[in-house]
Amino acid sequence: MANDCEASQARQAGTSSAAAKPLSVEAASAQLLAAARAIEDREQLPAMDCLGRVLAEPVISGTDLPGWDNSAMDGYALRVADLHASDGWLPISQRITAGQCGAPLAPGTAARIFTGAPLPEGADTVVVQEVCTPERDGLRIDAKISADIRTGDNIRRRGEELQAGSQVLAAGTRLGPQHLGLAAGVGAAQLQVYRRLRVAVLASGDELVMPGDPLGPGQIYNSNRFLFRALLQGLGCEVIDLGIVKDDREATLAALSQAAEQADLVMASGGVSVGEEDHVRPAVEQLGSLDLWRVAMKPGKPLAFGRIGETPFIGSPGNPVSLFVTFCLFARPFIERMQGISAAGLPTPLMLPAGFELTKPVKRRDYQRARLEIDATGKASVQRFHSTSSAALSSLTWANGLVMIPIGETIAIGDPVAFLPFAELIPGCTLP
Ligand code: AMP
Ligand code: MG
């Protein structure tokens, strides 16, 4: 596969250097991430309230896991030697349920035991109940089954998963259900997390109307406000929604200054191109600084990055698909870094067979809307949407990912192509 990222250097193509080579996606991402500063403010919260938050301090286990040798199954705890010395029948001397501690196991007997119950001292195996037959006040185990029973069967040993004092979750981890379950399992009631990142969003454009309001001639509904809010909420951000800002210099300046005062990051859609009706770009330049990056990709060129005072600013083109793609590839890792996640970066694609042909090579790396399809035999292939229009939001609801088409390549059916599942791109999304 052609390496289109090598074609561009890690060099910035600012507004002043319109003739400069476009940035590769990798170079743009690296530059953006280098400018991201993690917020420092943290808070201690009940672990119950930490879903989606980012750990500011590691979680250290307060206990061995398991805390003691215990049974992995419902069955009978016994000594292998006692079973082999018997005629296949052992009396039951005690019953141990989860949450109880039994007595040491009397020689020549078995203990009825349940999953998670502590193993009685002296027992060295647990025989699952399915292979035992209750008989009188004891149990019978067939000789053929008995021959296969080994010391240690169905026993979870103390500390076999982890030891008291060991780190179970690193700082910088986003807390999903599995992390919260583990934190609880080692006894953490409170967690140190970063405070929520505050992100201000605005959608610029005179043509924008909110759904529910009457649509006049030449007007369109404001999709980006919904995209922004949902994408940011999925990342656990506090959204400061400044709504629609008219194509007017004063209104744009006022909205952006207000946004920068309240937020850790300001994001805008529309108005960042170089037309005279693009007011976001000159307003950010007036309030701080702005670079318009010509990223060698489609959709998504140009991407605006700057500062309003000290507050970082990311501006994306107004077309909703451009907003979506630039958000997923660039803004999301930037936000994750600000939230304290150290591993944030470009997603890694899956290489899967193309279910389509491309005979005419693309000039910029193309992120086309694509579907991972699995046929009746379980074979996977990547299909692409019939249109590459960056205004067509229906392409995104048809798709379950993006296919990355490198510059200058042609593709035949069955060729490996780089697929980015939405599950990797959209927070909280799974493949439909
Ligand atoms: P702009 O980047 O402002 O030149 O806008 C590019 C295209 O995206 C235009 O066709 C706009 O009408 C459209 N657009 C801009 N903002 C939005 C929005 N919030 N929702 C839907 N489409 C938009
Ligand atoms: Mg506009």
Model description:
This protein has helices at residues 25-34, 80-85, 143-146, 177-185, 223-234, 249-262, 280-287, 320-339, 394-398, 422-425, and strands spanning 42-46, 59-60, 70-71, 75-78, 89-96, 110-113, 125-128, 132-135, 138-141, 155-156, 167-169, 190-194, 198-204, 208-209, 220-221, 238-245, 265-269, 288-293, 297-298, 303-308, 311-316, 350-353, 365-374, 380-384, 401-405, 416-421. A hairpin with a 2-residue loop joins strand 20 and strand 21 (311-316). By secondary structure, it is an alpha+beta fold. It starts with 24 loop residues before the first helix and ends in a 7-residue tail after the last helix. Helix content is 21%, strand content 28%. The model is unreliable at 1-18 (pLDDT under 50). Helix 1 (25-34) packs across helix 8 and helix 6 packs across helix 7. It is elongated and about 95 Å long. It binds adenosine monophosphate (AMP) and magnesium ion. Adenosine monophosphate binds next to helix 5.
